[in-house]
Amino acid sequence: MKFNSIKPPYRVPTMKEISEVPWNGFTVASTFSGCGGSSLGYKMAGFKVAWASEFIKAAQQTYRDNHTDTILDTRDIRNVQPDEILSALGMESGQLDLLDGSPPCASFSLSGNREDSWGLVKAYSDTKQRTDDLFFEFVRILKGVQPKVFVAENVKGLISGKAKGYFLEILSALKASGYDVSCRVLDAQWLGVPQGRQRTIFIGVRNDLKAKPAHPLPLPYRYSIRDAIPWVTSIYVDQVTPTHGDEKITKFKVEKTLPTVTANGIGSDCLYDWTVAAESGLSGYCAGREWDKLSIGQQSEKYFNLIKVNPNKPSPTICASHGTMGSASPVHPVEKRKFSIAELKRLCAFPDDFILSGSYAKQWERLGRAVPPVMMSHIAATIRDQILNKCAHK
């Protein structure tokens, strides 16, 4: 598929605008809520997120700062009972419209020797816990709450290699809970996010509703890094040489580089803090020396995750661990640094005024672990229009 030249300008609504979206009449309970990326997506589609669960303290603080109208349960999900959720919501089993969950996905990521950690307690964010069994905690909650619809998210690696055994077991357990279940791998770059990010999305509809699960269709266009961060550089295409089929070799020339973004922002209409943290610099690190050797758009052969991004394409995947000092990651094309937090918000489809706290690495981690809100808004809108609205009118 190709870029479509006719597309709306890239823009994520502000937190205030999201709070003013009219309620569509449907209510969500969220598990493994992180900083609230999925919750924002549901709110963009008009859902009310009434209850959420998050165990990681740094993520709890971020969730509270941005979702003040949602009940937040901070216990380990293993200690949360379905009837406690229903009691907090003032509901009985079967009344909740949608149960959402993004069980930690590091155990199924394709990077590293993932099988070595299965069944073990290991470091996860600022805790130590076993994570490969948490999807079954979601199933336990699902069985007790019996929502009309559920959405569960994980990495693409869940359906690859040896993890397929987990996938088949999870799928069987979800269906045995009383649901018609569909599972697809969706890529955020085709759902309004300027980042390639593939995620396994389970959608289930309770059997008695006699409706089919539905996933969103891809948009006819994608957003580039430049669409999201127009000040990234004023690189222009110098020469395009056709090769095989639709593939092309594109040469870039740097005409002018904008000054590093400062706390005062760019232009009089900039409302938010665009500070570039000192921690984003690559000088003095191996990644910095490698950056000097790369052309724009080139991926390092020595450090696989180090990519001097092409501004005219979506960003490569932003991972939670990429914000640590000196780690290889997608990096700025003309300044020897990682992206600023403000730039990352744009690339991860978060509002500019979304509140983050903690170190540069911790803020990066929150964004890297989250489901991009705009991506989830498309999933939520599809469920609203093709499942819940239709069931409500039967």
What does this structure look like?
The protein is α/β, with parallel strands linked by helices and 394 residues long. Helix content is 27%, strand content 17%. The protein has eleven helices and 13 strands. Strands 3-2-1-4-7-9-8 form a seven-stranded mixed sheet, sandwiched between helices. Strands 5-6 form a two-stranded antiparallel sheet. Strands 10-11 form a two-stranded antiparallel ribbon. Helix 4 packs across helix 5. The longest helix has 20 residues, at 373-392.
Class from helix and strand fractions: alpha/beta
What portion of residues belong to β-strands?
15-25%
Low-confidence region ranges: 107-114, 117-124, 234-271
Mean pLDDT: 85
| Separation of the first and last Cα atoms | 38 Å
Shape: globular
Cross-sheet strand order for the largest sheet: 3-2-1-4-7-9-8
Largest sheet: 7 strands, mixed
Number of strands: 13
Radius of gyration based on Cα positions = 21 Å
H/E element sequence: HEHEHEHEEEHEHEEHEEHEEHHH
Instruction: Tell me the number of helical segments per DSSP (H or I, 4 or more residues long).
Output: 11
Helix percent reads: 25-40%
